Structure formats: C-alpha cells, structure tokens
C-alpha cells in the first residue's frame, strides 16, 4: 500500500537474495522503523516479539527464515530442525506451520545444492501469492459493501457504509492489501462512501496503532473506538457489517482471531449485523475438527495488560504502568468465534458457509 505517497509493504527482499527487511510494527504509529533480518534466529525473534505479526505475514516471514537456513545448511535434518524451531515462535496462527511445511515440501525433494535458490524462490512466490489472495478476498468483500451501499441509496440514506473491524487484519498483517481491510480499500478506491469503526483492540492496541495508521495513510474515513463500544454502536444501527481477520479456522468453521472478536460476534448476532471472517484458505486447518477447544491460544505476557506505550506531548515514546504494583494480569491473545455466529467466510475463492461440508467442498473443487 501507499505510505506518504510511496509504495510500501511490511516485508521486502534486500539486494543479494540473503536478507529481508520488515517494518518493526512495535514502533507504529509514531515511528516507521525498518529492520533487516538475515538469519532464522532473527526471524524467530521478529515473530516472537511481534516486530511482524498477522497470520499471513508471519507465514511469509517464516518462509524467508527457512530460506535463509537453506543458504547455511540445506541438509534434510538442518531444514527440518529449523522449520520446527521457527514453528515454535508463536502457537496460534496456522499460517506459520503452513508456510514452513510448504517450503519443506517444495525444497526437500530437490538435490541439496539446488535447495538454497529454490527455497528463496519459493518464499518469494508464497509472498506474492498472499498479495493475490488478499486482493481476491477484497473483490468478494467489495460486493457486500456495494450491496449495502445500494440499499442505503434506495432508502435515501446518504451516509457511508459503516464497517466495524477488530485488531489489525490490514496490509500490515499480510504481504499486502490485508484481509479484512482489502474490501474496504477496494470500496474506497471505487469511490464508495465507507467509514470504519476501528476497535482499539486492547491490550496491544493493534487497531488503535496499526489499523488506524493504515486507514489514515490511505485516506479512509475511520473512528477509533474503545473495544467495549462496538456493541452499543450495533445496538443503535451504526454498524452495517463487521469484517475481521483470522489466525486459524477449524474444519467446522470455528474461527480464531484476536481476543475480543468473539464478543463482537455475539453483539453482531444479537443486533442482526452481518459478521464476516476474511479467511485466506492458508488459514484453514481442516486437520482440526473444531476450534473452541482445539485451537491453541497464545498466552502473552501480562505486561502487555499492565503497561501501555504512547507518545508524550514532547514527541517521546514512553511506556507507562496502568495497574497497581503487585496486581496480577492474564493475557490470552486470541479467542474463538463459534461457527454459528459467523455469517460467512470470505475467501479468495469466494464466500463460503462456516461449516465443514462447504469448507471441504471449497478445498476439493477449486484447487
Ligand atoms: C490477517 S490475520 C491478522 C490477525 O492476526 C492478528 O494477531 P496478532 O496481531 O497477534 O498477530 C489478529 O488476530 C488479526 O486478526
């Protein structure tokens, strides 16, 4: 996407074919800080410490991390051990394992001397595929926004289509376009009146810090809200639909996403607001029968709850303690929305019902 008029992605290759450069998203929105990554260990740290985050982006960066291993030692054991090591960076987003397993499948059948180039090319192809997938998700989601805009126009409502989103499933969470934001960007580019309610998304505030920054850079009208305001807005007819991302969807359509998504889905159902999960098929885990109990939920440091960082009036970025000394904090990073609360999944292959028969048919018929 564009930042200050310049095309930018959260991940790009550096000259020489041995390193990549990523946006260190911990510094946004106040500073745009790029960091080079040149080894599997640096990639592990970048994923673990959330310099880069977002299921599809995590997968793409990990793929390059395994390609970096192939330049060092491409033997079967070294490649498998490094893939296993990188999979341990974060447990919930299935794209991490999906990307690493895909790299192994594409590289290990080749002679060892050919593996380094093949791995780098495979990582690059995976990254570009993510861009195309997200653009397709955007096209399918755009049709939903267009339909709502048309209905509003028919009843003389000149207001924008109001979309609520949670966390950051934007271009910063992918290689480009985003998943939940792709329909929004495409609607804005098409001249459709769209406005976004941006859940701040405590405790790491991916919405307030990342989604708001992205939308601002793109000129998309948006309003940052406290996570707890979404239900009220839906109750008063101020949300036309919800678009959220996901980190893993089980075979029965249960969808795992950032903590707080489940509560938005409950409020949406109670108020008759369509609730869409934007799901690249790389995020579908058909090996998992159901998600509410089956998807591993990352427990992150309580410090993310007890402390917050921001910019002072003097322009300095500081971290402040919110809670009393000695108060404990729990910090589950994700929750799982039961399939019954999902209006539909928006995939690059079209909309699909959040249920097993439809999901298996989708994966079978359109390879
Ligand atoms: C396009 S998937 C983005 C997904 O990833 C986020 O989690 P995190 O920021 O912890 O990596 C969040 O669940 C988003 O919906």
From TrEMBL:
Q: Name one GO molecular function term.
A: S-methyl-5-thioribose-1-phosphate isomerase activity
The active site is formed by 247 (proton donor)
Residues binding substrate: 53-55, 90, 206, 257-258
Q: What is its EC number?
A: 5.3.1.23
Q: Does the keyword Isomerase apply?
A: yes
Q: Which Gene3D superfamilies match?
A: translation initiation factor eif-2b, domain 1, Translation initiation factor eif-2b, domain 2
Alphabetical keyword list: Amino-acid biosynthesis, Isomerase, Methionine biosynthesis
InterPro entries, alphabetically? Answer: IF-2B-related, IF-M1Pi, IF_2B-like_C, Initiation_fac_2B_a/b/d, M1Pi_N, NagB/RpiA_transferase-like
Pathway membership, UniProt: Amino-acid biosynthesis; L-methionine biosynthesis via salvage pathway; L-methionine from S-methyl-5-thio-alpha-D-ribose 1-phosphate: step 1/6
Reaction(s) catalysed by this chain, per the record, are: 5-(methylsulfanyl)-alpha-D-ribose 1-phosphate = 5-(methylsulfanyl)-D-ribulose 1-phosphate; 5-deoxy-alpha-D-ribose 1-phosphate = 5-deoxy-D-ribulose 1-phosphate
Enzyme kind, highest EC tier:
isomerase
Q: Where is this site: Transition state stabilizer?
A: 167
For this chain's UniProt record, which GO biological process terms are given? L-methionine salvage from methylthioadenosine
Question: Which family does the record claim for this protein?
Answer: Belongs to the EIF-2B alpha/beta/delta subunits family. MtnA subfamily.
NCBIfam families in the record, alphabetically? Answer: eIF-2B_rel, PRK05720.1, salvage_mtnA
Function (record text): Catalyzes the interconversion of methylthioribose-1-phosphate (MTR-1-P) into methylthioribulose-1-phosphate (MTRu-1-P). Also catalyzes the interconversion of 5-deoxyribose 1-phosphate and 5-deoxyribulose 1-phosphate. Part of a bifunctional DHAP-shunt salvage pathway for SAM by-products.
Q: Which HAMAP family match?
A: Salvage_MtnA
Task: Give the protein name, as stated in the record.
Answer: Methylthioribose-1-phosphate isomerase
What species is this protein from?
Rubrivivax rivuli
């Amino acid at each position: 996407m564009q930042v200050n008029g310049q095309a930018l992605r959260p991940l790009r290759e550096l000259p020489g074919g041995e390193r990549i450069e990523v946006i260190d998203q911990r510094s946004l929105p106040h500073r745009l800080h790029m960091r080079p990554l040149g080894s599997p260990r640096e990639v592990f740290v970048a994923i673990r410490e959330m310099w880069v985050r977002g299921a599809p982006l995590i997968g793409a960066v990990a793929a390059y991390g395994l390609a970096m291993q192939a330049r060092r030692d491409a033997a079967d054991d070294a490649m498998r051990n490094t893939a296993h090591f990188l999979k341990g960076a974060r447990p919930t987003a299935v794209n991490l394992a999906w990307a690493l397993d895909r790299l192994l499948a594409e590289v290990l059948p080749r002679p060892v001397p050919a593996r380094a180039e093949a791995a780098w090319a495979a990582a690059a192809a995976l990254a570009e595929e993510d861009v195309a997938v997200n653009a397709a998700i955007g096209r399918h989601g755009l049709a939903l926004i267009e339909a709502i805009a048309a209905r509003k126009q028919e009843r003389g409502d000149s207001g924008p289509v109001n979309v609520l989103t949670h966390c950051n499933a934007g271009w910063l969470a992918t290689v480009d376009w985003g998943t939940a934001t792709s329909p929004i960007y495409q609607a804005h580019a098409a001249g459709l009146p769209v406005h976004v309610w941006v859940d701040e998304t405590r405790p790491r505030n991916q919405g307030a810090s990342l989604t708001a920054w992205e939308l601002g850079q793109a000129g998309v009208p948006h309003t940052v809200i406290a996570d707890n305001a979404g239900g009220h807005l839906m109750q008063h007819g101020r949300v036309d639909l919800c678009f959220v991302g996901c980190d893993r969807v089980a075979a029965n359509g249960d969808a795992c996403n950032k903590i707080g998504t489940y509560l938005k889905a409950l409020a949406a159902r109670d108020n008759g607001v369509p609730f869409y999960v934007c799901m690249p098929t790389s995020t579908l885990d058909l090996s998992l029968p159901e998600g509410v109990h089956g998807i591993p939920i990352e427990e992150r440091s309580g410090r993310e709850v007890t402390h917050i960082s921001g910019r002072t009036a003097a322009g300095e970025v500081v971290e402040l303690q919110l809670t009393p000394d000695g108060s404990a904090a729990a910090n589950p990073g994700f929750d799982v929305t039961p399939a019954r609360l999902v209006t539909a999944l928006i995939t690059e292959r079209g909309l699909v019902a959040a249920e097993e028969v439809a999901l298996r048919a989708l994966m079978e018929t359109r390879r």
